[in-house]
Records
---
Amino acid sequence: MCERLVAVFDAYLAAERAEGRVMGLVHGDYRLDNMLFGQAGADRPLTVVDWQTVTWGPALTDAAYFLGTALPAELRRAHYDVLLRAYHEALGPDAPLTLDDVREGVRRQSFFGVSMAIVSSMLVERTERGDEMFMTMLARHCDHVLDTGALETLPEDQAAQPLVPEPSDEEAHPAGTEPLWNESWYFDFVDTGHGIGGWVRLGLIPNENRRWITALVCGPDLPTVAVLDWQGDAAGVELTLETVEPLQTYRVTVRGRGEAFDDPAELLRGGSGRPAELAMELVWSTNGAPYQYRLASRYEIPCTVSGTVTVDGRRYRLDGVPGQRDHSWGARDWWSMDWVWTALHLDDGTRVHGVDLRIPGAPPIGVGYLQPSGAPLVELQAVTARETFADNGLPVSTVLHLQPGDLELTLRVRAHAPVLLTATDGRISDFPRAWVDVSTADGRTGVGWAEWNRVRH
C-alpha cells in the first residue's frame, strides 16, 4: 500500500487540491500529544498546541489524521460512525458539508497519516520509543486506509515528472524547532588536468548555535589540505556564498589556515597535520537539470566549475571542470543512519547522482537521477552500493547498481578528503569523501565525488 501511494503521491496531492474540494485551515499534527484538556471550570475545555506545521489544505485532513492516530484499529472501527456523526454535528447547522461529505473527506485524507509516519521517521533522531511510535502510527493509518477503501480513490500510476526546485530556495530558510535542524550548502569539483579536486560545505545548526565550515582539496599526487571550523568562529577562516543567478550560477570564496595531511586517514583519527594555507575563488555554472528530492527538502545541481584554487601559494586555474552543488534544509541527524552519496560526470555528457540510504530497521531507500546528454532527466527508483574499505577506514572502491536502466558503475578512489563528525552528545560518524574515477559496464568512463557516512557503534 505504501509503495502504491508513493508512486502516485504528486498526482494524489494535486487531485486533493483541485477546484471544488473543500479547503480549510490544517493544523498538520492533530493528535492527542498536542492537546491540553481543561479541568472543570477552565476557560477552555480544550487547547490545541504546536501550530508550527499549520497550512491551508483539504479541510478533513486533521480529522482523518486524528482518527487514524488516536485509536487502535478495533476501537476506531467500533466507534467510527458515532465519531464522524459527532464531528459533523459540531460543525453546526450551517456547515457546508453533509455527513456523507465528512465521511468521504476523511476517507480521502486517510493517506495523510501514512505519509506523516514515513517522512517524520526519517527526519528525527532514532530511538527505541520513536521506532515503536512510528511503526504503530504506520500500522494504524494503513488499517484506516484499507478499512475505508481509500485505495480506490488514488489516481492511476503514471510516470511522475521530476521535481524542480524554486529559485527562492537558493537562499536561507527559517529554522525549525528540532535540535538538529540543519541547513547546508555543498560544492565540489574535479580537475583531472591539474590533478586537484575539492569540496566546500557550509552547515548551519542554529538550535545548537553551531556553524560548520569545511573546505578540503586533494589529489593523487597532493597532500590532503583541510580547513575545518566546527563552530564558525575560527580566526582567519572566511567563507562567502553568493547566488549570482538562481539555479544557474553560484559563487564561492573561501580562505583560511588549515592543515596538510600526507596520510588523509589521520583526519578520521582526529590527528594533526602541518600548517597550510588554502584559498578558493570559484563559480559553479549549472550544466544540467536541477533536481528536487521528493521526500526531503533538498536539491542537487550538476555543474561546471571555473576560477582559482591556491594551496600554499601554488595557484591552479580551473576552466569548466566537472562539479556538483546541493542545498538541503530540515532536521538532519547524521549519526542515526549510514549512506553512500555520489555525484558523477561521464565523458559522454551523462550526469549521475545517487544516494543509497540505510536507515536501521527500514527497507532500502534509493534516490537520484540519470541525465543523459541532450535527453530528459530520468529519476532513479533504486540505488544499491557495494563498497570496499581499507583497514585505515578509507574507501577503496564502490560498485553502484541503478534502476531503471540496469546501469552498473564502478568507482575507484583517486584521492581522499575525509572528515570526522562529532555530535554534541558524543556520537561519532566517520565521513570519508573522495574524488573517484568511474567506469561503467558498457564501457564509459568519468569522474566525480562520493561520500560514505559510517556511524560508529
Note: Residues 128-148 form the longest helix (21 residues).
---
Amino acid sequence: MLVLWEGCGVMVVSIKDVASRAGVSAGTVSNVFSGNRVVKPDLAERVRRAATDLGYQPDRAASQLRAGKAKVVAAIVPDLNNPFFTSLIASIEASVRGEGYDIIVASSHGDAEEEARRLSALLGWKPAGVVIIPCTDEFASRELLSGSGVPFVVADRVPSLFDGDAVTVDNVDAGVKAAEHLVALGHRQFVVAASSMKLQNIRERCEGIEAVLSREGLAAPILIEVGLDFDTAAERLGTFMEGERQATAFIALTNFATLGILASANKNGLSVPQDISVLGFDDYSWMHAFKPPLTAIRQPVDEMGRAIWNRLRGHLSDESQPSARERLLCDLLVRASTGAPAAEGVRSA
C-alpha cells in the first residue's frame, strides 16, 4: 500500500477504495493486479485508471507471501558489466513481464563461491523459477539448484555434461561461419582472441574455427587468452601486436576481445581493414557506428530470451515436462572491417 500525506493526516488507499472508484468488486481489483484470473480489458483499464488516480500501489510481497510462491523469476549472471549478459536479461524480462512476472537479477562477479551465496539469497525470495549463466564449467551451484525444487534453465555457458534445461547458441557453427568468411577473402594466418579456454562455449567457437582451417590445409590459429575484461584484453593483445607478426585476420570471441583488438591495433598504428581484418562476436550499436563498421557474429539475443522463458514456463505449468537443450543459430553480418589481406601482414609499429 502507498501512504499518502494530506495536511497533517495520513490516508491509506486500499483495494476497497480502488474498487469503489472503478465501480467494480474488490475481487476484480485483486485479479487485475495479481493476474490470477483474466479480467475483461475494459474493466482492467478502469481499475488501473482508478488506482493511478488514487495513487494506489499493490502490495505484491504480501500477496505473494500468502500464495506461497512469488511471481518472480530470479536470474544470476557472471558480470553485469558485460553487455551481452545485460542484453539477454533484458530480453528475458520482456518475456516474463508480458505474463505478469517480475525478474530479480544478481551478479556472481565470476566467482563460484559468490555465485552460491547470491543464488542462496535469490532462492530466499521463493522465485517461481531461476535462470543462471554459470561462471565456470564446473557449475558448482547445480546441486544447490537441484535440491531447491525450483525449476531452472542454464543459459549461454552450458557445461558439456549438463543434461537439464538449457538454451545456448551453436557455437561451433558460429566459429565455422567466422573462419569461412575470412578464408574466402584470402586470409591464411589467423589470430583468435578468446576470453578463457576454461569455458565450454569459447572452446566450441575455437573448435569451429580450427575445423575450417584444418579442412583448408591452413595452420592452426594463434590463440591468445585475453581474459574477461577490456583492460586485460587490450594489454595482452597490445603486447602481441608490438612484435613482428604475419597474421592478417583477427577473430574476437567476445565483446571485450573485440574492443581489445581495436584498441591495440590503434595503439600500434595498424589500420582496419588495410593492415588487419577484424571480425567481432556479438553485435552492438557501437559496431555500426565504428569506422569502419565491424563485421560480426550476431547471437540471436531476443530469440534466446524467449526460448529461455518458454523452457521455464513449460515447467511452471507442467512439472513432468522433459528437459531439453536448445541450440540457436548465429548470423554473420558482413561489414567493412574485413577485406582481402595486406601482402605484408601485421608488422611491428
Note: The longest helix spans residues 301-317.
---
Amino acid sequence: MVFDIDGVLVDTREIVRRAYAEVGVELPDHLWGTTWRNWLPPLCGGDLLRAQVVHDRKTRSHLDLLSRTRVTTLAGAEAARELHSRGWTVKFITSGTREVVQRTLHSADPSLNGFLAGTDLDSTGKRKALEEISPAGGVYVDDNYDLGVKVTGGSTWKLVHFHGQAETELIKEIGAVWMS
C-alpha cells in the first residue's frame, strides 16, 4: 500500500503554487505531481542548469513558506494511519524533494514518516520505485489520476484515485481494489 504525499496525505497545492509564483513560474494543474525535471527545463529554454537554479530558488521559497504556514492533513493521512493500525504495510512516495517533504510532514503530522522523495528516485521515478517496493504489486493512491495511470498502467500495481473522499470511503475503495 503506497500513498502519494502531496494532495493525498497533505494539502500542499496552495503553498507549492505560491512557492513557484515567488520565482515567476506558474504550475499548471496537469503537471501537478510530476517531477520538475520533466517540465521546468522547457520553460527555461531547454537549459537544465537554469531550471535547477529556478527549482533551488523555489525550494528555498517553499521552505520559508513552510516555516510560516501549517499544512493541513487530508483524509488520505487518516486512511493511511487506520490501515497501518490494521496491520497493512503503508509507505509514502512523492516527486518532491526530501527536505521539503520532511518539513511538510512534520508541520502536518510528525507521525507520518517513511517515504521516498523525488531526490531518492532515478529518472524512471515512481513507477520503478513501486516495482522495487513490491514486484508482486499492491495499491497506489494518487490524486492526479492521469499521473497515477502512467505510474501503474501495465504493472502489477492498482490505482485508487483520491479525489477528496472521506477516510471511510477511501478505505473501502482501497479494500475493494485490493481484493479485485
Note: Residues 94 and 117 are 5 Å apart (CA to CA).
